[in-house]
Amino acid sequence: MGLYRTLRFRRRFGSKPLLPRNLEAMKTRKIFGISLSLILINMAAIMERADENLLPAVYKEVSEAFSAGPSDLGYLTFIRNFVQGLASPLAGVLVITYDRPTVLAMGTLCWALSTAAVGASHQFLQVAVWRAVNGFGLAIVIPALQSFIADSYLDAVRGTGFGLLNVVGTIGGIGGGVMATVMAGQRFWGIQGWRCAFIMMATLSALIGFLVFLFVIDPRKTIKTTRDTGEDSERNDLMDKGNFSSTSIWMESWTAMKAVIKVKTFQVIVLQGIVGSLPWTAMVFFTMWFELIGFDHNGAAALLSIFATGCAMGSLIGGLVADRMSHIYPHSGRVMCAQFSAFMGIPFSWFLLKVIPQSVSSYYTFAATLFLMGLTISWNGTAVNGPIFAEVVPAKHRTMIYAFDRAFEGSFSSFAAPMVGILSEKIYGYDPKSVDPNSGSVREAFALSRGLFTMMAVPFGLCCLFYTPLYLIFRRDRESARIASLKEAEMM
Fold first, then answer.
1. Burial class (CB in 10 A: 0-12, 13-18, 19+), 480
2. Cβ pair 337, 318 in contact under 8 A
3. Which PANTHER family does UniProt cross-reference here (predicted)?
4. Counting Cβ atoms within 10 Å, is residue 207 exposed (0-12), middle (13-18) or buried (19+)?
5. Helices 193-215 and 158-184, interaxial angle, to 10°?
6. Paired sense of beta strands 187-188 and 191-192, if any
7. How far is CA 65 from CA 58, 59, 68, 80, 176, in A?
8. In the prediction, which pLDDT does 247 show?
9. How many CA atoms lie within 13 A of 354 on its CB side?
10. How far apart are CA 204 and CA 197, in angstroms?
11. Per-residue pLDDT tens for 124-155?
12. How far is residue 159's CA from residue 317's CA, in Å, rounded to a whole number?
């Protein structure tokens, strides 16, 4: 009877075996789950970047509301980035105990709460405290987000994957910055517009965090299921016949920390990142600088949107170029892309801040320069650092390496914003009392531009130089990581 059914099946459908219906349904659900997870992860990236751009977009209004100068505003960015840097390793510990969607949801809800609280604050000290809480939430989210993307793409296209993440994140950054800048000059129900923007963004962030918690599937679980193994996640690697203790968590975390810090490639990228992230932190003053020149809220928002669009396109183009270069030059292609991108920051900073006349009549020159600048200086993180990190450590240590990268870079780069304010006020003569709330001040804009140039051109040059050792050590570290991964797979 069984043979008769088999022959009848083959006559009807041919000799090629078909998948059982339940297996087809499982594959369909898996594909749908992966797609939904990536959509929600990208939405979380959008909200994260939008949240980061909120305060810089309303620096001028916050300065007026709390009688704060550039150095005070710089300290707000310093506090958030410094706390974010110190707390980033916690993300690597949390993903051992919880899956990444849970960690992402926790961090998202934390930053949503702090964002709403900033909008409701009435004292400068309150804003500072809640900015610290905001940094804690971002410290949990960003490394988990980066390792999630690293696990979702293969080595050959990982630069493109990080580039796509940056594109959608930039959309959020543009939306958050434009929304806050446009709303800042208005009042809603008797409430200042910039406060309404913070509360609105907090509400949307909380909603996205809830959806991530409910529907996102960790890529590690998908990979394990595909291989038909019984392992669930890194957490199970610490379990011995059902026993799971906090001691084993901290021991595994400590082992991962030591393994990551010893990697020479990690040390080099962190070194360049410490100086390479300084210009990006200093750029939080761009909106304020344009408004001091005399641009209104809409004009300043448009210029920053053009710059952000250039950065988004540049990160994607950089990812594609770096992926292609890594095929041609497997051990040096990404490094060459990184040095090109870092070097381009020097001439563009000089032209933007020192050559273009600081006048509203230079709008189109500013726009073209900002777009081209964003197109060329935004390659490093998505095309180089993110993909290289994923190749020099075993997969289970990826969250930890991204977390420690944020810890070192975030802690040191946090000094850039207050340094811009201090240089502008103490050396170049910026006077907050001389600023006209309506028309700005050309003199103060000039002083701020000099502070910005100092904190951008020199760090870009050092960043380019510090990538050089990777030509020698990246190949060795990548081979070591591959051997370690193969040994772990054999043990399983």
1. middle
2. yes
3. MAJOR FACILITATOR SUPERFAMILY PROTEIN (PTHR23505:SF78), SPINSTER (PTHR23505)
4. middle
5. 150
6. antiparallel
7. 10, 10, 8, 20, 20
8. 55
9. 13
10. 11
11. 888 888 888 888 888 777 777 777 777 777 76
12. 9
Q: Write the pLDDT tens digit of every residue in 211-239.
A: 878 877 776 665 544 444 433 444 444 33
Q: Report the alpha-carbon distance of residue 91 to residue 404 in Å, rounded.
A: 9
Nearest alpha-carbon partner for 138 in 162, 171, 115, 166: 115
- ∠ CA 24-165-352, rounded to 5°: 165
Here the tokens at position 387 are: 């993909």
Two structure tokens written together for 108: 């998202």
pLDDT score, position 435: 63
Distance (Å, whole) CA 124 – CA 126: 5
Token code pair at residue 474: 């990246």
Strands (E), 162-253: 187-188, 191-192
Instruction: Render 91-125 in DSSP notation, one character per residue.
Output: HHHHHHHS-HHHHHHHHHHHHHHHHHHHHH--SHH
Alpha-carbon span 490 to 492, nearest angstrom: 5
3-state class (DSSP) for residue 6: helix
**312-326, 337-351, 470-484: least confident range:** 470-484
Q: Which among 272, 483, 492 is positioned nearest to 392, based on CA atoms? A: 483
Can you tell me which residue has the tokens 């240590």?
A: 397
> At residue 230, what is the residue type?
G
Angle at which helices 363-377 and 333-350 cross, to 10°: 160
Mean model confidence pLDDT for the chain? 75
When comparing pLDDT for 413 and 204, which is higher?
204
Q: Which amino acid is at 264?
A: K
Quick one: tokens of 388? 């290289």
SS (H, E, C) 422-445: HHHHHHCCCCHHHCECCCECHHHH
DSSP string of 272-320, one letter each residue: HHHHHTHHHHHGGGHHHHHHHHT--HHHHHHHHHHHHHHHHHHHHHHHH
Q: What is the pTM of this model?
A: 0.64
d(CA 364, CA 68) in angstroms, rounded, equals 31
Q: Catalogue all structural domains in the chain, each as residue range(s) with its CATH number.
A: 39-220+249-491 (1.20.1250.20)
Question: How far is residue 450's CA from residue 300's CA, in Å, rounded to a whole number?
Answer: 19
Sorted by sequence, the CB contacts under 8 Å of residue 358 that are 6+ apart come out as 293, 442, 445, 446, 449
